[in-house]
Amino acid sequence: MSAAKRKMMVAPAHEGLSITRQCKLLSLSRSSFYFQPAGENEKNLTLMRLIDAQFLETPWYGSRQMARHLRREGWCVGRKRVRRLMRRMGLQAIYQAPRTSDPHPEHRIYPYLLKGLAIEKPNHVWCADITYVPMRRGFLYLVAIMDWASRKVLSWRLSNTMDADFCVKALEEALARYGKPEIFNTDQGSQFTGFEFTGALKDADIKISMDGKGRWIDNVFIERLWRSLKYECIYLNAFETGSQARGGIGHWLDYYNTRRPHSSLGAHRTPHEAYAMQWEETQNLAA
């Protein structure tokens, strides 16, 4: 269990246990319970928005090349700062990075199962990804779950942390509303390799597939979703609060699913129309 979750379990008003005793029982230092992380300053928030926009155009930029780009744009910034901000945003260049550390010993990396696979029906393959959402005075993280064949967004969640909880809740909602896929594909982010997320997939008897390290192209459809969402919604609005972001993103995703024709879907159908039609065809064949 993460330190953030254990911190949430501490009850300051508990009558029988002091905060010190609760922290000891939870293997949590008392100082970490009282610690309040400082938010990013205005300059860093601006740099993060610029990095995010440039990364959509050049996803092969690492911290060194991104720092050079920002300096060419007139920003006095070093590589160390850019590297820290990119890590906080969850951005990693698409090239194969040298292996400088071992994976988490308790997180299994699953093989990529989609190579050469014909995906032509709904609920055959679902995929998920997380992206950074800039706001006027801060940022959030957005996870979405998509049906691969129809490109329909089945569920989504916003969070102010990168913990796995909001990803698991999005998965549970999608399973409750649409059944289950045969295969679920993600990248190798810790939110998706951890026990909570993979356990939920195993409990539902779903095959787990993961992209190669640094291989954004393996999950290309949801990467295209992020690009459209940011240029058509997020960058145009500069949301002030989380509730505004939730409302604006929800409105755009509803438009994307039900009113925005997709060129890769026959007869320029919307994702919702393609999902419903493909599902009906599948049911008729099964009958």
The CATH architecture term of the largest domain is: 2-Layer Sandwich
Shape: globular
> Which sequence of SSEs, written as H and E, runs from N to C?
HHHHHHEEEHEHHEHHH
CATH fold group of the largest domain:
Nucleotidyltransferase, domain 5
How can the largest sheet be summarized? 5 strands, mixed
CATH superfamily label of the largest domain: Ribonuclease H-like superfamily/Ribonuclease H
The total number of structural domains is 3
Overall mean confidence score, pLDDT: 85
Proportion of residues in β-strands: 5-15%
Which regions are unreliable across 5 or more consecutive residues at pLDDT < 50? Answer: 96-103
Helical content, roughly? 40-55%
Radius of gyration: 21 Å
Count of DSSP strands:
5
Query: What's the helix count?
Result: 12
Can you tell me about this structure?
It is built from twelve helices and five strands. It has a five-stranded mixed β-sheet, with helices on both faces. Helix 4 (42-57) crosses helix 6 (79-89) and helix 5 crosses helix 6 (79-89). The protein has helices spanning 3-9, 19-25, 30-34, 42-57, 63-72, 79-89, 165-178, 190-193, 195-203, 220-237, 242-258, 271-286, and strands spanning 125-135, 138-147, 153-159, 183-186, 207-210. It is globular and about 60 Å long. Helix content is 47%, strand content 13%. The protein is an alpha/beta fold and 287 residues long. A hairpin with a 5-residue loop joins strand 2 (138-147) and strand 3. The protein folds into three domains: 3-34, no CATH class; 42-89; 125-286, Ribonuclease H-like superfamily/Ribonuclease H (Nucleotidyltransferase, domain 5).
